[in-house]
Amino acid sequence: MTSAATICAISAAGAGSPTAAAQTCSDVDIVFARGTTEPPGVGWLGTAFINSVRSKVGSKSVSTYAVNYPANWDLYSSVRAGGTDALAHVHATAANCPNTRIVLGGYSQGAGVVDVITIGQRVGLFTPMPIPAEDEPHVAAIAVFGNPMRTMNGGGSLVDKSPVYGGRTIDQCATGDQYCDPGPSDNTAHYAYVQNGMLDQAAAFVAGRV
How far apart (Å, rounded) are the C-alpha atoms in residues 85 and 161? Predict the structure, then answer.
């Protein structure tokens, strides 16, 4: 996990150098929010997604940021905290590394974190926490998995709910995933995104936009 400060790393210059420091920014920065109750980090699906994106972008450098939030069952407070942290990271990266292509990703509750900073309207109890207009052009792609806001009042796919980011988004919901699919549930579907090919499909979508 790296922070914006690491992505835009400051390396000390040699003694007597006229420049105090030099910046190194990655080509792509993947900001990922883990699922409910997962330990801090990008989570199991985030790790697989990041690895898949890296395998598809050739020589481009890829940094990662794990959204720092509780990911607990106090969903409203937890998602809001995640949105606040993700917004701060996006803003810092856009300001310090303007050529870095930012990718937003999330799984399960983490998909909800991405929703609140990119949707155009209220969904259930969740009101938008929009990415500032000056940072929006730096967001190249969005990928979410098992998105619970799809089934909430006013919900639906993020592709359709975000007038700004819909065209840059892939919102993956496995058939039978009870957290995003209102149809008959399959207890394994929420954990099947690697095996069913949807994760690799999302990585290819993202790689084509960075």
Answer: 22
Section 187-193 average pLDDT: 96
Angle, CA of 67, 71 and 72, to the nearest 5° = 165
How far apart (Å, rounded) are the C-alpha atoms in residues 41 and 110? Answer: 11
**Residue whose tokens read 């409203």:** 76
CB neighbour class for 44 (10 Å; exposed up to 12, middle 13-18, buried from 19): middle
Give me the pLDDT at residue 84, please. Answer: 97
Structural domains in the chain, CATH included, are 26-207 (3.40.50.1820)
- Catalytic one of 52, 108, 157, 162: 108
Active-site residue flag, 138: no
Check 29, 85, 135, 177 and give the catalytic one.
Answer: 177
Q: Does 89 participate in catalysis according to the annotation?
A: no
Interacting residues of 89 by C-beta distance below 8 A, sequence separation 6+: 3, 4, 31, 65, 67
pLDDT tens digits, residue range 50-109?
Answer: 999 999 999 999 999 999 999 999 999 999 999 999 999 999 999 999 999 999 999 999
pTM comes to 0.88
d(CA 101, CA 78): 26
